[in-house]
Structures are given as C-alpha cells and as structure tokens.
Amino acid sequence: METENDNGTPGISSVIPGWFSEISPMWPGEAHSLKVEKILFQGKSDYQDVMVFQSATYGKVLVLDGVIQLTERDECAYQEMITHLPLSSIPNPKKVLVIGGGDGGVLREVGRHSSVEQIDICEIDKMVVDVSKQFFPEVAIGYEDPRVTLHIGDGVAFLKAVPKGTYDAVIVDSSDPIGPAQELFEKPFFQSVANALRPGGVVCTQAESIWLHMHIIEDIVANCRQIFKGSVNYAWTTVPTYPSGVIGFMLCSTEGPSVDFKNPVSSIDTNTDYNKARGPLKFYNPEIHTAAFCLPAFAKKVIDAK
Ligand code: SAM
C-alpha cells in the first residue's frame, strides 16, 4: 500500500513542507524524515514508484514506493555487510548470484573478492538500474565489472530455472515484503535458493528490523531451519536511514562443508587495482563481522528458540 500526501507524491510529507517522511504500514506510528533540497527524479515503472532526491544531510536518496532504499552517506553499511558477511565466511567464493540489488552496490562489494569469477544479478525493475547509473555512479560502478551478467526479471522465476548446486553464494538484496519482493520472503523461494547452492554454499538475505519485525523474522527463521541443514544465523547492523536505524540479515548454509559465519575465514585484499579503484571499505571489518551476530536478549529469545 502506498502512502501519498495531498499532492500524490509517495512519502513526500505535507506535514513539514520540504521534508520526506517515510510513512508505511510496515512501521505504524513512526516515520523517519529527511530534509529535501531538490527532487531529482520521479517515475513509475511496471512495479513501483521510483524517486531520487537530494537530501540536506545524507546526499542523494533512492526511494521505491515511498520507502528509502539507499542514501549516498550510509549505503556502505548495508552493501558491505550484506555482501562480506556471507562471502568472508567461505574460502574462495567463485560463483555468486544477487537477487534484487538493482542499484549495483552489492555488485560493487562482491567484486572486491578476487576469487569470484562469475556474478549473476536478477533485478525485476530496469528503471532502478537506469536511475542508479544516472544518479548513483559510485554505487552503480558494480555494473562495470566484466564478471557481472544482468538479468532483468523476477528473482522467484529466475531461481526456479537455476541448475542444482550452481552457486557458492546467493545474496538476496530485496526491498520489503510489500510489493514485488513479497515472494522473496516465503518458503518456496528459500527452497529454490537452497537448491541453487552447492553443498556448504551460503545465502544472505535482507531480514528487516528486530525492533519492528520480530514476527516476520520469526517466520523466516522457522522456514530457514526447515530448509537449510548447514546452519541458520541472524546478524544485524546499523543503517541510520532504515526504519529504527537497524537492518538484519539471515545467513544460512546448506548441508556439506561446515560454515562458521561468526568467524570470517577469508579477508579482502584491499591492494588489488579493482579495490583501489573503488576506495577503501567504509564500514565492514572482521571485528564488526563477528559482533554482528551478538543479539539483544529479546531477539535472541525468539531467534535461538528451537
Ligand atoms: N541495495 C539497496 C540498499 O542499499 O539498501 C536496497 C535494496 S534494492 C534497491 C531492492 C531491489 O529489489 C529493488 O531494486 C527492487 O526492484 C528489487 N526487487 C524487488 N522484488 C524483486 C523480485 N521479485 N525479483 C527481483 N528483484 C526484485
């Protein structure tokens, strides 16, 4: 459901003129707001409203259906953690699939792992790709990697066609379970992810906020426990412009070589030409990797419950 104000622009609040307020039934009774300096793009694709605005304090901002997807200032936290938590947990990942992630930021981070030979991405909305290339070149730089193949389509259908055991890692960088991403949070999709992974392969999915969505997280954990026979883990990090200021990740592995997600086994060579051209990591490091799995008591009780 979209929230529109009187001039029909999703999320642009008329409560405080000149501010964007992220009003959504996914976080009732609260709304994070950013001061808007200028609206740079507004469009409607076959799947969602797409907007870009220049904010006063977070750089440019990408909004889909009235929900902030990324800002120039804090995208590093999300893109680096959703990528390096899984890829640094296995030795020498070679074949990686990204579902969603049309802005290209996860591609940029996957490419930092020099062992990776093949990066496939399935993004449903070409408008997101085009808008990111136009307004977020430091994020969309991920597409300039010759290892990347872009598929425009539904990730659910894409995974159904993937031969068994194809990938070392799958990263599900999806929007929220309202709109085109809804099926990416459901059991059949997780089953198709498990099928696409090799034994001991890993998946990392965007898994909402422990402050707002414990009911969604509880269901995801239960589904993952039934499907992924390696290990099932929940990690979280801070992203100031996401609702409640945090975002979580489900990290699971298929049966096979054991994966200890909490202790990274591979490091990123920051001295490669690729990584020097993309600048240093701004958020991820081995210590914050391990710390990401430390949960507050209220979340641990739900997530660790057998
Ligand atoms: N990477 C962003 C960030 O830094 O926060 C967040 C999310 S990214 C923009 C989410 C993407 O998932 C969107 O581009 C959206 O179009 C895509 N998406 C949603 N449902 C999808 C589906 N069923 N298949 C493929 N892509 C989907």
TrEMBL record:
EC number(s) recorded for this UniProt protein: 2.5.1.16
A single GO molecular-function term is: spermidine synthase activity
Query: Can you tell me where the transmembrane regions are?
Result: none
Q: In which pathway does it act?
A: Amine and polyamine biosynthesis; spermidine biosynthesis; spermidine from putrescine: step 1/1
Q: Is Glycosyltransferase a UniProt keyword of this protein? A: no
Q: Does the keyword Transit peptide apply?
A: no
Q: Which NCBIfam families match?
A: PRK00811.1, speE
What is the official name of this protein in its record? Answer: spermidine synthase
Q: Which organism is it from?
A: Linum tenue
